[in-house]
Design a protein that fits this description.
binds N,N-dimethyl-L-histidine; EgtD_Methyltrsf_superfamily; alpha/beta; L-histidine N(Alpha)-methyltransferase; 10 helices; L-histidine N(alpha)-methyltransferase activity; three-stranded antiparallel beta sheet; single chain
Length: about 325
């Protein structure tokens, strides 16, 4: 290994280990958190604007409808914590409705994107303390030690919970339950089960942006881990798995081929897939049951006017 490549990999140790680990399994897989570098986060923002991807639009409409009710439930001097904060449009709606929010803590794995959206909030809400945290919120809640303990409200829109498998979702919710304590809450957006054609269209858009987003993980491996994936030899594949109630995204190898990542060779058979993402869809009841298993009670649930997405206010 030459020195340059050595340091390249050292700086990306965890990414490299996760990639090799995932691609060495019988069913090859890659963690979906690696979609989100600067390019991936921008592609995801593009997905949110697509005609087929209803999640963002429906949730924005829902937030507009219920924001005064949310503000009442939240009360005053809240510390609003947003794991996986994106461009901050939804949080802006919420912050604008609150009487006296004290602090906003956006958390995101993509530092550049986070700084950018943190700046926007600072400019628009000069009275709110903004405390951006660059972290993988699925790994640790250490960042919370920096915030006051009372009235912590975790805002988790966008149906990101759907990207966790049910066991991870349960443990995430029970961790959140611990940090919000007896006075806090979690406001969480959850995509609803709906007709398969509508679900599959949302993950197979005509413009091919979702395919590009999916392949961005290979681009990152090439750029950051000295890989040589040929993007044209992999195909985006997304479908609804009815039994598991989830959209699955895969990258399917078009032919028998070998890929080198740093010095490691990975072999693919024709049609072999890399499983890159799950996006679970819940009914209101199945989600409330999941929250209950995590020790949380539902104070209130809402759905948008087209019955596409839901939002829940959960407490201890
Ligand atoms: C971020 N997350 C909720 C999106 C979803 O719908 O599961 C990610 C996504 N993947 C493909 N399109 C959007």
């Amino acid at each position: 290994m030459d020195a340059k490549v050595g340091s390249l990999i050292e700086n990306n140790n965890e990414f490299y280990d996760d990639v090799i680990d995932g691609l060495s399994k019988k069913q090859k897989s890659l963690p979906c958190k690696y979609f989100y570098d600067q390019v991936g986060s921008e592609l995801f923002e593009e997905i949110c604007q697509l005609d087929e991807y209803y999640v963002t639009r429906s949730e924005l409409e829902l937030i507009d409808t219920i924001k005064s009710e949310l503000a009442q439930l939240i009360g005053s001097n809240a510390v609003i914590i947003e794991p996986g904060a994106g461009a901050g449009i939804k949080i802006q709606k919420l912050l604008a409705t609150l009487d006296t929010p004290s602090t906003y803590v956006p958390i995101d794995i993509s530092r550049d994107f986070l700084n950018y959206s943190g700046e926007i909030i600072k400019q628009k809400f000069p009275n709110i303390d903004v405390f951006p945290v660059a972290a993988d919120f699925t790994q640790s809640f250490k960042w919370l030690d920096y915030t006051v303990q009372s009235n912590r409200v975790v805002f988790f829109p966008g149906s990101t919970i759907g990207n966790f498998d049910p066991a991870q979702a349960e443990s995430f919710l029970s961790n959140v339950g611990e940090i919000i304590g007896s006075k806090g809450a979690i406001i969480i957006g959850v995509d609803l089960v709906k007709p398969i054609a509508q679900l599959e269209a949302a993950y197979n858009d005509q413009k091919g942006i979702t395919a590009e987003f999916n392949k961005n993980i290979l681009v990152r491996i090439n750029n950051e881990l000295n890989g040589n994936f040929d993007l044209d030899l992999f195909e985006h594949d997304a479908f609804f798995n009815v039994e598991k109630s989830r959209i699955e995204m895969h990258l399917k190898s078009k032919e028998d081929q070998s890929v080198i990542i740093n010095e490691q060779q990975i072999d693919f058979k024709e049609s072999e897939r890399i499983h890159t993402e799950n996006s679970y869809k819940y009914s209101i009841d199945s989600f409330v049951e999941l929250a209950q298993r995590a020790g949380l009670k539902r104070a209130k649930s809402w759905v948008d006017s087209n019955n596409r997405v839901s939002m829940h206010y959960l407490v201890n």
